[in-house]
Amino acid sequence: xxxxxxxxxxxxxxxxxxxxxxxxxxxxxxxxxxxxxxxxxxxxxxxxxxxxxxxxxxxxxxxxxxxxxxxxxxxxxxxxxxxxxxxxxxxxxxxxxxxxxxxxxxxxxxxxxxxxxxxxxxxxxxxxxxxxxxxxxxxxxxxxxxxxxxxxxxxxxxxxxxxxxxxxxxxxxxxxxxxxxxxxxxxxxxxxxxxxxxxxxxxxxxxxxxxxxxxxx
Length: 217
Known about the structure:
Blueprint: H1 5-24, H2 36-53, H3 60-87, H4 91-103, H5 105-112, H6 115-143, H7 154-167, H8 170-174, H9 176-182, H10 184-210
Protein backbone atom coordinates (compact mmCIF):
# COMPACT_ATOMS: atom_id res chain seq x y z
CA UNK A 1 0.00 0.00 0.00
CA UNK A 2 1.16 3.62 -0.63
CA UNK A 3 2.57 5.52 2.37
CA UNK A 4 -0.48 7.80 2.58
CA UNK A 5 -2.66 4.77 3.32
CA UNK A 6 -1.20 4.47 6.82
CA UNK A 7 -2.15 8.09 7.53
CA UNK A 8 -5.53 8.35 5.84
CA UNK A 9 -6.89 4.97 6.99
CA UNK A 10 -6.75 5.84 10.73
CA UNK A 11 -8.30 9.24 9.93
CA UNK A 12 -11.15 7.43 8.16
CA UNK A 13 -11.67 5.16 11.16
CA UNK A 14 -11.76 8.16 13.51
CA UNK A 15 -14.36 9.91 11.32
CA UNK A 16 -16.54 6.77 11.33
CA UNK A 17 -16.30 6.47 15.10
CA UNK A 18 -17.01 10.19 15.51
CA UNK A 19 -20.16 9.94 13.36
CA UNK A 20 -21.39 6.99 15.44
CA UNK A 21 -20.66 8.77 18.76
CA UNK A 22 -22.42 11.96 17.60
CA UNK A 23 -25.39 9.89 16.47
CA UNK A 24 -25.60 8.16 19.86
CA UNK A 25 -26.04 11.56 21.53
CA UNK A 26 -29.34 11.87 19.64
CA UNK A 27 -30.70 8.38 20.32
CA UNK A 28 -33.16 9.57 22.95
CA UNK A 29 -34.48 12.35 20.70
CA UNK A 30 -34.91 10.00 17.75
CA UNK A 31 -36.04 6.85 19.57
CA UNK A 32 -39.50 7.06 17.96
CA UNK A 33 -38.22 8.23 14.58
CA UNK A 34 -37.03 6.14 11.60
CA UNK A 35 -33.83 8.18 11.82
CA UNK A 36 -32.78 6.02 14.77
CA UNK A 37 -31.87 3.35 12.22
CA UNK A 38 -29.31 5.73 10.76
CA UNK A 39 -27.64 5.83 14.17
CA UNK A 40 -27.63 2.03 14.39
CA UNK A 41 -26.13 1.91 10.92
CA UNK A 42 -23.30 4.27 11.87
CA UNK A 43 -22.58 2.25 15.01
CA UNK A 44 -22.45 -0.91 12.90
CA UNK A 45 -20.04 0.70 10.42
CA UNK A 46 -17.77 2.04 13.17
CA UNK A 47 -17.72 -1.34 14.96
CA UNK A 48 -17.07 -3.20 11.73
CA UNK A 49 -14.22 -0.93 10.66
CA UNK A 50 -12.63 -0.89 14.12
CA UNK A 51 -12.69 -4.68 14.18
CA UNK A 52 -10.98 -5.07 10.81
CA UNK A 53 -8.61 -2.16 11.34
CA UNK A 54 -6.49 -4.07 13.82
CA UNK A 55 -4.57 -7.16 12.86
CA UNK A 56 -6.24 -9.95 14.80
CA UNK A 57 -4.55 -12.75 12.95
CA UNK A 58 -7.51 -13.20 10.60
CA UNK A 59 -6.49 -13.91 7.02
CA UNK A 60 -6.80 -11.17 4.41
CA UNK A 61 -8.93 -13.47 2.27
CA UNK A 62 -11.54 -13.80 5.04
CA UNK A 63 -11.67 -10.02 5.35
CA UNK A 64 -12.21 -9.67 1.59
CA UNK A 65 -14.99 -12.26 1.62
CA UNK A 66 -16.67 -10.53 4.57
CA UNK A 67 -16.73 -7.14 2.85
CA UNK A 68 -17.81 -8.61 -0.48
CA UNK A 69 -20.74 -10.60 0.88
CA UNK A 70 -21.64 -8.80 4.14
CA UNK A 71 -20.07 -5.37 4.68
CA UNK A 72 -20.63 -3.83 1.26
CA UNK A 73 -24.16 -5.24 0.65
CA UNK A 74 -25.33 -3.95 4.03
CA UNK A 75 -24.12 -0.46 3.13
CA UNK A 76 -25.95 -0.39 -0.19
CA UNK A 77 -29.08 -1.95 1.31
CA UNK A 78 -29.27 0.65 4.06
CA UNK A 79 -28.62 3.60 1.72
CA UNK A 80 -31.30 2.35 -0.68
CA UNK A 81 -33.70 2.19 2.25
CA UNK A 82 -32.67 5.63 3.52
CA UNK A 83 -33.25 7.22 0.12
CA UNK A 84 -36.05 5.10 -1.32
CA UNK A 85 -38.22 4.50 1.74
CA UNK A 86 -37.28 7.11 4.34
CA UNK A 87 -36.71 10.19 2.16
CA UNK A 88 -38.42 9.61 -1.20
CA UNK A 89 -41.24 7.43 0.16
CA UNK A 90 -40.95 5.16 -2.88
CA UNK A 91 -40.97 1.55 -1.68
CA UNK A 92 -41.45 0.22 -5.21
CA UNK A 93 -38.22 1.83 -6.43
CA UNK A 94 -36.42 0.56 -3.33
CA UNK A 95 -37.64 -3.00 -3.93
CA UNK A 96 -36.64 -2.95 -7.61
CA UNK A 97 -33.17 -1.55 -6.97
CA UNK A 98 -32.32 -3.82 -4.04
CA UNK A 99 -33.60 -6.88 -5.91
CA UNK A 100 -31.51 -6.20 -9.01
CA UNK A 101 -28.50 -5.31 -6.89
CA UNK A 102 -28.63 -8.57 -4.93
CA UNK A 103 -29.15 -10.53 -8.15
CA UNK A 104 -25.71 -9.37 -9.34
CA UNK A 105 -24.28 -12.01 -7.02
CA UNK A 106 -25.89 -14.81 -9.02
CA UNK A 107 -23.81 -14.63 -12.22
CA UNK A 108 -20.70 -14.12 -10.11
CA UNK A 109 -21.34 -17.29 -8.15
CA UNK A 110 -22.55 -19.34 -11.12
CA UNK A 111 -20.09 -18.33 -13.79
CA UNK A 112 -17.17 -16.37 -12.40
CA UNK A 113 -16.64 -17.52 -8.81
CA UNK A 114 -13.96 -14.88 -8.46
CA UNK A 115 -13.84 -12.47 -5.56
CA UNK A 116 -12.17 -9.86 -7.76
CA UNK A 117 -15.30 -9.70 -9.93
CA UNK A 118 -17.41 -8.90 -6.86
CA UNK A 119 -15.25 -5.88 -6.06
CA UNK A 120 -15.77 -4.53 -9.57
CA UNK A 121 -19.25 -5.57 -10.74
CA UNK A 122 -21.10 -5.33 -7.44
CA UNK A 123 -20.11 -1.75 -6.45
CA UNK A 124 -20.56 -0.64 -10.07
CA UNK A 125 -24.17 -1.80 -10.18
CA UNK A 126 -24.82 -0.70 -6.60
CA UNK A 127 -23.51 2.81 -7.20
CA UNK A 128 -25.41 3.12 -10.47
CA UNK A 129 -28.69 2.77 -8.56
CA UNK A 130 -27.36 5.07 -5.85
CA UNK A 131 -26.77 7.76 -8.49
CA UNK A 132 -30.46 7.47 -9.43
CA UNK A 133 -31.44 7.98 -5.79
CA UNK A 134 -29.09 10.96 -5.48
CA UNK A 135 -30.63 12.64 -8.52
CA UNK A 136 -34.17 12.00 -7.30
CA UNK A 137 -33.26 13.37 -3.87
CA UNK A 138 -31.90 16.59 -5.36
CA UNK A 139 -35.00 16.96 -7.54
CA UNK A 140 -37.14 16.48 -4.44
CA UNK A 141 -35.19 19.12 -2.51
CA UNK A 142 -35.49 21.57 -5.40
CA UNK A 143 -39.22 20.87 -5.81
CA UNK A 144 -40.12 21.43 -2.15
CA UNK A 145 -37.56 24.26 -1.72
CA UNK A 146 -35.86 22.41 1.14
CA UNK A 147 -32.54 22.90 -0.63
CA UNK A 148 -32.87 26.62 0.16
CA UNK A 149 -32.77 25.71 3.84
CA UNK A 150 -29.97 23.20 3.47
CA UNK A 151 -28.46 24.02 6.87
CA UNK A 152 -31.48 22.40 8.58
CA UNK A 153 -31.90 19.59 6.04
CA UNK A 154 -30.41 16.29 7.21
CA UNK A 155 -30.64 14.71 3.76
CA UNK A 156 -28.67 17.57 2.19
CA UNK A 157 -25.55 16.61 4.14
CA UNK A 158 -26.10 12.91 3.59
CA UNK A 159 -26.66 13.43 -0.13
CA UNK A 160 -23.53 15.56 -0.42
CA UNK A 161 -21.45 12.91 1.34
CA UNK A 162 -22.80 10.12 -0.84
CA UNK A 163 -22.02 12.12 -3.98
CA UNK A 164 -18.44 12.73 -2.88
CA UNK A 165 -17.75 9.09 -2.07
CA UNK A 166 -19.94 6.76 -4.10
CA UNK A 167 -20.51 8.89 -7.18
CA UNK A 168 -17.02 10.39 -7.08
CA UNK A 169 -15.32 6.98 -6.96
CA UNK A 170 -17.60 5.26 -9.49
CA UNK A 171 -14.89 5.10 -12.19
CA UNK A 172 -12.40 3.74 -9.66
CA UNK A 173 -14.44 0.64 -8.93
CA UNK A 174 -15.65 0.22 -12.49
CA UNK A 175 -12.05 -0.09 -13.66
CA UNK A 176 -10.45 -1.11 -10.36
CA UNK A 177 -8.40 -4.03 -11.66
CA UNK A 178 -7.34 -2.22 -14.83
CA UNK A 179 -6.18 0.88 -12.96
CA UNK A 180 -4.40 -1.03 -10.21
CA UNK A 181 -2.57 -3.39 -12.55
CA UNK A 182 -1.74 -1.10 -15.47
CA UNK A 183 -2.09 2.52 -14.30
CA UNK A 184 -0.71 2.35 -10.78
CA UNK A 185 -0.09 6.08 -10.45
CA UNK A 186 -3.68 6.95 -11.32
CA UNK A 187 -4.94 4.21 -9.02
CA UNK A 188 -2.91 5.55 -6.08
CA UNK A 189 -4.24 9.08 -6.56
CA UNK A 190 -7.80 7.86 -6.94
CA UNK A 191 -7.51 5.59 -3.91
CA UNK A 192 -6.26 8.55 -1.86
CA UNK A 193 -9.36 10.46 -2.98
CA UNK A 194 -11.48 7.45 -1.94
CA UNK A 195 -10.09 7.56 1.61
CA UNK A 196 -10.42 11.35 1.90
CA UNK A 197 -13.96 11.43 0.46
CA UNK A 198 -14.92 8.56 2.76
CA UNK A 199 -13.74 10.52 5.81
CA UNK A 200 -15.56 13.68 4.69
CA UNK A 201 -18.76 11.70 4.11
CA UNK A 202 -18.85 10.50 7.73
CA UNK A 203 -18.08 13.99 8.95
CA UNK A 204 -21.08 15.20 6.94
CA UNK A 205 -23.16 12.40 8.46
CA UNK A 206 -22.21 13.70 11.92
CA UNK A 207 -23.08 17.26 10.87
CA UNK A 208 -26.51 16.06 9.72
CA UNK A 209 -27.32 15.30 13.37
CA UNK A 210 -25.84 18.51 14.75
CA UNK A 211 -27.33 21.00 12.28
CA UNK A 212 -30.15 19.04 10.65
CA UNK A 213 -33.61 19.22 12.11
CA UNK A 214 -34.34 15.99 13.94
CA UNK A 215 -37.83 15.72 12.52
CA UNK A 216 -36.81 16.38 8.93
CA UNK A 217 -37.52 13.73 6.33
